[in-house]
Amino acid sequence: MGGCPPGPVTVWHEQRLRVRYEETDTMGVVYYGKYLTWFEVGRVGLLRDHGLGYKEWVRRGMEFPVVQAHVDYKAPARFDDEILVKTKVASIGNSSIRFENEVYKIPEGLLLATGHTVQVLTDREGVKIPFPPELKERLTST
Amino acid sequence: MGGCPPGPVTVWHEQRLRVRYEETDTMGVVYYGKYLTWFEVGRVGLLRDHGLGYKEWVRRGMEFPVVQAHVDYKAPARFDDEILVKTKVASIGNSSIRFENEVYKIPEGLLLATGHTVQVLTDREGVKIPFPPELKERLTST
Amino acid sequence: MGGCPPGPVTVWHEQRLRVRYEETDTMGVVYYGKYLTWFEVGRVGLLRDHGLGYKEWVRRGMEFPVVQAHVDYKAPARFDDEILVKTKVASIGNSSIRFENEVYKIPEGLLLATGHTVQVLTDREGVKIPFPPELKERLTST
Amino acid sequence: MGGCPPGPVTVWHEQRLRVRYEETDTMGVVYYGKYLTWFEVGRVGLLRDHGLGYKEWVRRGMEFPVVQAHVDYKAPARFDDEILVKTKVASIGNSSIRFENEVYKIPEGLLLATGHTVQVLTDREGVKIPFPPELKERLTST
Fold it and tell me: What is the pTM of this model?
């Protein structure tokens, strides 16, 4: 694979959750910042499904600080709604990774939000490290 | 003023706060989603300073749901850090408003994050309403 | 049933969840306030299992504000831990209800916390209302 | 001072804050779990005022995990309300400390909640350590 970034991966990880009362606000809808928590839940689930559970990060001494986050809100979610968070790896650079997310209300399949996050791979001191090729492959295989 | 959008307003609202333990995560830094709460604190302060405190929104039957949020993270904040959240109105459309934010660690003045949010003005049923001209003027005056 | 409070109900509702990164703090453990969110998730699940899902509260015009909350912390939870939240109705008064909670780390079965909450039943204006006998029965049947 | 616990300290630390939109829920009031965050803000402020700012904890290698938390809710707080959080050291044991809190809406002085937390003093590995006498004295002097 060398330095060539792999093509986009089109397999979505799917994570279900239910809106907590704590996540709602005075407008009766989910507070806009909580979508970033849901994106996190999606990313962590995707990584776990690719053999990169948290214990494995710790073993490898890796951290994934977020350097960019973006959300477009389409429709509100309300308390007790069932939610589907879809996450995919959009691209992997030398030491960064971009995840894309879509959030749906189920069972209607109503799109609530889209967005993305960019993370860099660092060691425990916060110094950027390159993606191990074996990890890149694992995250871009389906 | 009619239909012409006012030029960008360059006066920053400044809001100080201190990092709460609740806002930090296992990496020992402020969780990425919390910056959207700080942006909210900045926006609310800016609106209050322009005579649009919450009681006034309620009196007018207005709400401001967020339709877009974006953050670029530059450096981490840690527990008990003193933070300066700067907020300005970047532009006002027919029924939307764009706020820009900068977050600094003080007293060093280290830039921690930049970002923006876009809100639409709606009535209590969530139906978009045009910005009253008098409000536009108030929010774009310094 | 009349005015006699039913005896304690000993059937535990069980709800599984996984620790979110957002829920942890600089000590690397779940922030103490988040247990109240987990208690909420447990209560809501228990009520739903007894035919009192949120749509049903709304239909009946009922709300359940919390008047007391208590937690004893026994051992810390960490990011990505699998958690079991057990909830039961401990007693129902005229217009109040007491839930008890136990939180475990699974699969070890390590007890992390115990606690309780007391809620009052109110109408949408926050005025206390008596528990409808049929509701009391439903919540104290197994 | 030896093993004798000092008498109760009756000086309240006062911390003002303003309700954030993020802290409210669908009932239009502050979510019950957020009071524990406010108690934290109060404790941290009290410790800082006694020369125990966070940098000092870190220098001494101390942590303060919470082992018990309790809240009695008297009246709801709403978005943008100004809040006064009062905190005092109620007692200090060998390696534990009990803080009491009162939360008021200002300027009315309406009591919103009372409560307490108990913390133990530990080293960075979570092992209980006795309160240094000089610390006890400092925390119980006014």
Answer: 0.93
